[in-house]
Protein: 5-methyltetrahydropteroyltriglutamate--homocysteine S-methyltransferase
Organism: Rhodotorula mucilaginosa
Amino acid sequence: MSIQSSALGYPRVGAKREVKKASEAYWAGKISAEELQKVAKEQRLVRWQTLRDQGIDVIPSGDFTLYDHVLDFNYTFNIIPKRFAEAKLSDLDRYFAMGRGHQKDGVDLEAQEMQKWFDSNYHYIKSEVSSHTEFRLNDTKPVDEYLEAKEAGIETRPVLVGPITALLLGKAGRDEANRASFEPISLLDKLVPVYGELLKKLQAAGATEVQIDEPSLVMDSTANLAQQYQATFEALAKAAPGLKITLATYFGRLDKNVEFVAKLPVSALHVDLDRAPEQLDQVLAAVKPTQLKLSLGLVSGRNIWKNDLAASLATAKKAIEALGQDRVVVATSSSLLHTPVTLANESRLSADVKDWFSFATEKAAEVATLAKALSGADVQAALDANKQSIEARRAFEQNSDASVRDRLSKVTPDMYNRKSPFPERKAAQDKVYDLPTFPTTTIGSFPQTKEIRLARSKNTKGELSTEEYEKFLENEIKSAVDFQEAIDIDILVHGEPERNDMSQYFGEQLQGFVFTENAWVQSYGSRYVRPPIIVSDVSRPHPMTVRWSSYAQSLTKRPMKGMLTGPVTILNWSFPRADVSKEVQCKQLALALRDEVCDLAKAGIFAIQVDEPAIREGLPLRQVDWNAYLTWAVDSFKLSTAGRLDADVISVEASKSDLKLLEVFHKHGYENLIGPGL
C-alpha cells in the first residue's frame, strides 16, 4: 500500500510576488477588483499545479488569501465589527478595511489589531467578538476554491482554521459591555452549528476530507478544554459524516493534550515532528489503540534547510512499525507559508550554499520523495543526492570559524555584568550630560522616504556611485539632526537612512550570514520580508555603525545616540542554523555587538540604544520552557551591552496601553530610568 504525501499549506505571494503587486495596485486604484481577482485565481491554480507536479498527493485548498487566513475565517463566519459592517463599502473593500483600515471617500476606519501567529514571524488579524456577534455564513470561500480546483482537474483537501483556535485568538469587541471579563470562547456553542453548515456545503460540493487547524492544542491554555474539543468535533462529525477530518496541530508538542485529542472523532491527527520531535513516542502510544491515521510533520514548514531524508525515513519507519503502513501519512510540519516560494529564482547564491537550502516548492518534493521511498519506489538517486548535500553542509558548519567558538567558550560570568551599580553610573552620567528632569528623545528610525529607497536602489544597481550615495545619506542625516534641534529634542538620533531593515542591515555586515534575491516571506498582508540566513559562526569583521553615528555627532553639541539591533531580535528575524542551538547563535551575535558597543563608546558616542522588539516574540509556546529561553535571551542582551553599558533606561511602547505597563515596572521594584513611548 502506498504512503500518502501531504502539504498543510503553501505560500500565497506568487513566485514573482504577483499577489502582493496586484493587491497594492488595487489599493492604489490602478487596477479593478475584477483584475485583482483574476490574478488571485491564476495564482491559486499555479499553487495547486506546483504541488501536484512535485508529487504531493493531498493538496490543500482554501489556504490562499489576499490578506490573512484568520481574516478570511472572520469574514466567512460574519465576525465583522459593527463599524465595518455599517460602512458603505464593497465586500472586497470591507474585507481589506478590516485588515488594513480605510481612509477614503469620507470613510475613516481603523484596522483591527494585528498579532503574531503563535511563535512565527507571521501576523494575523485579531478578531473582535462580542455577545452581539451573530455567526452566519457570510461567504463560501472554502467551497468556491475547492470547486475551482476541481474544475481544473485537481482534487484538494480544504483547509480551515479550527473553531476553538479561532475564538481563542480573538478578543472582546468594542461593543461588548463586559470587555474586561468577556471571553470569545464562551460563544463556541453558537459558532459550531454554523461551522457545521460550511462542512455540509463542502461535502455537498464533493469534498471527501477536510483539514481543520487547531494549533492552540500545543498551548497550555487548551489543557482545560477537553470537553469543548470533544463536543465540538462530535458535532462537526455529525454535521458532515462523509467528510474525513484531519486535525492539524503544529509549532509545538501536544504533551498531555494528546490523551484527549487521540479520542476525538476525527480520521487523522497531524503532529509537528520538526519543532517537537520528542513527542513521537507519546503520540504513538496514545494513537495506537485507536483507528486514527497519523500525519507525520517531517519536513519543516518554518526553516529553509534541506531535510535530512535518511533521518526522516527512520522516524517514519518507527511510526509504520507501531501503527502499520495504512495509518501513516508524511507531510510538512506546518503550512509552507513561512518559507520562500522556490529556489529557482535565486541566481546569486553560490552553488555550494544553494545546495543546502530547500524552499516551499523543494520541500514539497522532499515530502513526495519520503512517501515514495516508504512505498517501495526507487528514489535512491534522490536519497544519495540528499545525503551528499547534508554531509557537505555539516562539514562546512563544523569547520567554519574556530576562533568564534573559542571566544564564546571563554565567556565568564563577570562579562554579563557592569562594573558599577546603577546609582553610581547615574551620578556620573548626570555630570556629563546635564539633561533636564524629563529629557526627550525618539526611538530611532525616521521615515524611509521614496527618495531614500530610490537612492539605495540606484546604488545597489550601480546607477549611483558609493561616493554619491554616502553624500546623499549625509544630507539626510543632517536634515534629521537639524529637525530635532529645531524642536528642542534633548538626546538626538541620526535617523538611520542608511538602513534597509533593522535586522538585515546588521546581517549584511556580519560574517556568517547569506542573503537572497527573491526569498520573500509574508509578514502580514502585502508586507513581505527577506530574512537573513545564518549559515555559520557569526563575527564582526569591521565596525558597522560608527561611521554614521560619529558623523551625526559631529553636527551637534547635543548627545547623539548610537542605534543597534539586539542579538535576540537579529536571531528571531533571521532563518537560524539547524546544527547548533539558538542560544549559541544568539551569544555569538552578542559578542559581535559587544565589540560594536565598545567602538561606539571609543568614538565618543556615550548614549547607545539597543533594540530588542523580538525578545517577547521568541518566548516558547509552553510556559515550562520560558525560563530556559529567558535565561539565555537576557544573558545575550547583557553580554552584548555590559562591555560598556547595561539597561540604564528601558524604553517601552506605552501609547496603546494607557500607560498600564508602567504599573508592572512599579510592582516589580524597577529602580532604573524608564522612557514611556507616548
